[in-house]
Amino acid sequence: MKGIIVQFRRGRHTVHERHYLIDLGFSNREEAKKMAGKEVIWRSPAGKEIKGKISDAHGNKGIVRAILEKGLPGHAITTDIDVLESEEIKTPKKTKEKK
């Protein structure tokens, strides 16, 4: 699923550099709350990946709030971000063999 980075999470006097508001095309808060816990990846034009997680809905119009592992560059605003489905997140874990 694709989304668009709308803005930093901000207030009148503060900007949260790692928190972003993402528009996934939902129309209300209930639909947006279902996306909480999903992982997101932003890919730069050079191929760098920055990962994060959707924390909750933001407001009543279907916007979600995501917290990324580090801040994005300013030109990331209005670019696409990928939301991973549950089967894409799961990776096989290596198990230790007992001797």
What is the typical, i.e. mean, pLDDT?
A: 91
Calculate the terminal CA-CA distance, rounded to whole Å. 44 Å
CATH superfamily: translation elongation factor selb, chain A, domain 4
C-alpha-based Rg, rounded: 15 Å
CATH topology title: Thrombin, subunit H
Summarize the structure.
This protein is 9% helix and 43% strand. The relative contact order is 0.29.
Give a description of the structure.
By secondary structure, the chain is mostly beta strands. It has a single domain (2-87), classed as translation elongation factor selb, chain A, domain 4 (Thrombin, subunit H), CATH 2.40.10.190. Helices cover 9% and strands 43% of the residues. It has helices at residues 29-33, 86-89; strands at residues 2-10, 15-23, 39-43, 49-58, 63-68, 80-83. A six-stranded antiparallel β-barrel has the order 1-2-5-4-3-6. It is globular, with a radius of gyration of 15 Å. The mean pLDDT is 91.
Question: What does the secondary structure layout of this molecule look like, with pairings?
Answer:
Elements: E1 2-10, E2 15-23, H1 29-33, E3 39-43, E4 49-58, E5 63-68, E6 80-83, H2 86-89
Antiparallel strand pairs: 1-2, 1-6, 2-5, 3-4, 3-6, 4-5
List keywords for this structure.
Thrombin, subunit H, globular, six-stranded antiparallel β-barrel, mainly beta, 99 residues
